[in-house]
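Worked Example 4.2. Consider the chain below.
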Amino acid sequence: MKYCKTCNVHYDTPIEHCLFCHGDLVNDETHEPTYKYMPVTKKKKPNLWLRFFVLLNMGSLIISLGLDYFDGMPLSWSFTVGAANLYAIALTIFGFSSSTWPTKLNRLMITTVAGLFLIGLSLRDYHWALDYVFPFVIIAQILTLSGVILFNPRKWLDVSANLLIMSILGLIPSVFFLLDINVVNWPTLACVSYSFITLLGIIFIPSKESREEFKSRFHI
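Applying the procedure from the previous section yields the following structure tokens:
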């Protein structure tokens, strides 16, 4: 009998892939034919307070742009306000989402870096965001996720995907270094080195069973 490890569903059919996640099926002769279909649930309506908050921030963004434009003022102030509005919207949406906390933390960190970079662009001084904020945020996030795995190995599979994403993002500053965009290079070099070492650790340190489970869960 065919069996999907991810969805925990058995198939008494000759198909090779799961109907739900499209992952590869394995043979399992120890179970009787069972079909456990996911129950149909109605999609929750968006929170009214979330809608109101998004509209309020969008209104603030449009008004600030309008004031600068009609007064003939430089748009740097309104761009700064707009970046703060977009950051607040993204932060609130992440708070209302049902994702796990490592995923929420990853999104928060990435959004924070993007928001600070946009503010830097509006002020025409973005080097502090690229030279310091981006590298140190990545390092802090990798340290946090690595600490979770170190002190609670059972969370390895839940945290490893987010750790992998942050390790890959940590290699991006190397592009800034190669293109000579950075003013201060040592934070970038520290971030890239630490991210590369973490990436190697994710690949080679886990046991064979953990790697197989990781591949099965993420269909690699």
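The radius of gyration is 23 Å. Residues 127-151 form the longest helix (25 residues). Compare this with Example 4.1 before moving on.
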